[in-house]
Amino acid sequence: MSSRLSHLPSVNQVLLELGDSLSIHERYLKRIINKHIDYYRRKIKSEKFDLNREQLLERIVTRVSLEASPSLVNIINGTGIVLHTGFGRAPFEGKRLRSLARRLDGYVNLEFNLPDGKRGDRQDHIDQHMAAICGSESSMIVNNNAAAVLLSLNTLAAGGDVICSRGQMVEIGGTFRIPDIIDKSNAVLKEVGTTNRTHIPDYKKAITKKTKLLLWVHTSNYVIRGFTKDVSLDELVSLGRAKRIPVMVDLGSGALLSLSEHGLPEELQVRNIVEQGADITTFSGDKLLGGPQSGIIVGSKNFTDKMKQNTLYRTMRCDKITIGLMDEILWTYSETGFSKMNLALNMLTTSRKILKKRANKVISALAKSKIKKLGISVVDSAVEAGSGSLPVKSIASAALKFKPSSVKVSDLSAAFRNGALPVVGYTYKNTFYIDLKAVLPHQIDRLTKAITQV
C-alpha cells in the first residue's frame, strides 16, 4: 500500500501540471487539489488500485479542472416543468439580459434622482409601472414572496393578532408555513374555522382589541373538494372595513393577466384581488409573472411607505440587477397579453402541435442507428407549470421517449446530465423522457447534438 500511496502527486506537482489554465484564487485551487488527492488516498487504502503515478496525476488534474470551473451553468430543461425551482424558476430571454447588461454597464442611478440631483428611491424604477398593471396605488419589490409576506405582517401586525382560516394554513416548498412566518413576524396567529369549512361568523367571533390584521391566503398549490365552505375575499374586506382592520392577501403565484385566454388553467389575477379591496397583496415575481426571484407587494401607499421605514426592509431590498430584470419583464406586458420576450409565459402557452414539430425535427436529424439504439420516439405528455403554480390541471406537451437496448436508463440519464451541455430529463417506469415544454426554441439543435454525443 505504501508504494501505491507514493504514487500520489503533491499539490505543487498538480499546480505545475495545471499551469495558467485556471483563473481562480490560489487558496481555493489548493483546497480543491487537496480534496481530490485525499479522495484517491482513501481509495488506495480501501481497495486494489493499479494506477501508476502518471495516470493518477492525469485523473487528479482532470477532476480539479472540472471542479474549478464555474458551477452555475446553462442546461437544457427536459423535465417539462417551466417554473422549475431547481433551475431558477422563470427563464430569461437572452436579448433581455443583453439589454439589461448595456443599461447596467458601470454605474447606474439606482438611488439617485437625475432631474434634481437628490437621493432617490430604488423602488421608483418599477413602483408605478407595476402598480398601474395591478390597479393599485403603490407597489414595491423585495427578495421573494416569503420576504414580502414577512415584511407585510411585521409592519401591519407586530404585537397584535392576525386572523386566518385553518383552511388556508398553507405550506410551500422548503417548509415555508403560514403559521411559522406569522410567528416570526412577531404577531400572534388566531386560527378560525376548520380545514374544510370556515364562515364569516368565525372571523367576527375572533376579533378583539388585539386584532391588527385579517389574512386571506390563496391556496395556490392545492385544492380542498367535497363538503367545503370558505369566506370570499369580498366578505372579508367588508368585515375589515366595518371593523377598521386592514385585509392582506397572500396570492402566491401572482398572474398579471387572464391565463385562460391564452390556453392555460385560470389563476387568480392580481388586479382582480386589488379591485376587491385588499389593502395589501403579496405574490411571487418569478412564477407566473415571468420575472427574477422576487416578492411583490401592491396596495395602499400608506402601508408600503411604512414598510420602507421598517428595519426589516433593508435586509430584504433588491439589488440593481433584480430591479433591472423586473423592469425589463414589465415591459413585456400589454393590455391584450405579453410579448415573446416573456419567455416563461411563451413556453407555458406553446401548443403541443408546435412541440411535436420540434420533437420530430430532432428525430429527423438523428442517425437511424442512434434512434434504434436508444429507442427514441415522440409521445404526447402532460406537465405541471411548477413551483406550486396551476397545480390542479396539467398542461399538454410532447416528449422524446427513450427505451435504450444496450444501456441502463439510469446510466443514460447520467450521461445526459454530465454532457458538454447538460440535459436534465426524467425517468418513469424504466423509461427516460426529455419533455419539450421547457426546452428553449434555440436549444433544439443543441439537444440534437447532445443526443448524438451521448
TrEMBL record:
**InterPro entries this protein is in?**
PyrdxlP-dep_Trfase, PyrdxlP-dep_Trfase_major, SelA-like, SelA_trans
What Gene Ontology cellular-component terms does the record carry? cytoplasm
UniProt-listed GO biological process terms: selenocysteine incorporation
For activity, the cofactor(s) needed are: pyridoxal 5'-phosphate
Where does the record locate the signal sequence feature? none
Cytoplasm is among the record's keywords: yes
Print the keywords alphabetically.
Cytoplasm, Protein biosynthesis, Pyridoxal phosphate, Selenium, Transferase
GO MF entries: L-seryl-tRNA(Sec) selenium transferase activity
Fetch the PANTHER family from UniProt. Answer: L-SERYL-TRNA(SEC) SELENIUM TRANSFERASE
Q: Which NCBIfam families match?
A: selA
Q: What is this protein called?
A: L-seryl-tRNA selenium transferase N-terminal domain-containing protein
Q: Which organism is it from?
A: marine metagenome
